[in-house]
């Protein structure tokens, strides 16, 4: 990418911990177009020290907590964060759609060469997925599953009501996990819908194959990564 193009392009990093790769999204402001790239994490500095128009980071770590806004007391932020981590990482507060507060830690150390670039925005993937799915209109309870990198995110909702959100390593037995969730929320494995979203469509297809003997209504959402991840301008 030419230097002049970089200065007119927004870079979004989808960061995974304990995973050898990162995903990059490039938004060309002149063409209003997205492109994406999967890179080895040790190559990330080759991109972060260029002069982009903006740099945003989407975190996926498990050190996060969701709190209903009416129960959230800002002065207790440190106590909330102590529940999820003992590490001395940067602490970030991020407001969610539908009056939910997300607190999470930032353990991605970029060592940016200032003043080349400043971080425009940081957000947890939970925030993005919850906001996206709660905007969908559905009169029955449905389950959305997002698979990408080394993580699976599971969200259960009805219209804008969030019933459940969690994430875990995709090497875990997610079939057993989903069956338990369906029992816990009194859902019907033949009637309640599961929608699979993924970075790589092959992952979605593989998941559907594993689920289809236990769940009847399964759809694959073939939206590309840029349609799923939206960063505030």
Q: Can you give a write-up of this model?
A:
- The longest helix has 11 residues, at 174-184.
- This protein has 233 residues and is of the alpha/beta class.
- It is 22% helix and 37% strand.
- It is built from seven helices and 13 strands.
- It has helices at residues 3-6, 45-48, 77-84, 125-134, 174-184, 201-211, 225-228; strands spanning 9-15, 21-28, 33-40, 54-59, 64-68, 90-96, 100-106, 119-124, 142-148, 151-158, 161-169, 194-198, 218-221.
- It has a domain at 135-228: Protein of unknown function DUF3822, C-terminal domain (Nucleotidyltransferase, domain 5), CATH 3.30.420.260.
Give the SSE layout.
Blueprint (H helix, E strand, L loop, with lengths): L2 H4 L2 E7 L5 E8 L4 E8 L4 H4 L5 E6 L4 E5 L8 H8 L5 E7 L3 E7 L12 E6 H10 L7 E7 L2 E8 L2 E9 L4 H11 L9 E5 L2 H11 L6 E4 L3 H4 L5
Parallel strand pairs: 1-4, 4-8, 9-12, 12-13
Antiparallel strand pairs: 1-2, 2-3, 5-7, 6-7, 9-10, 10-11
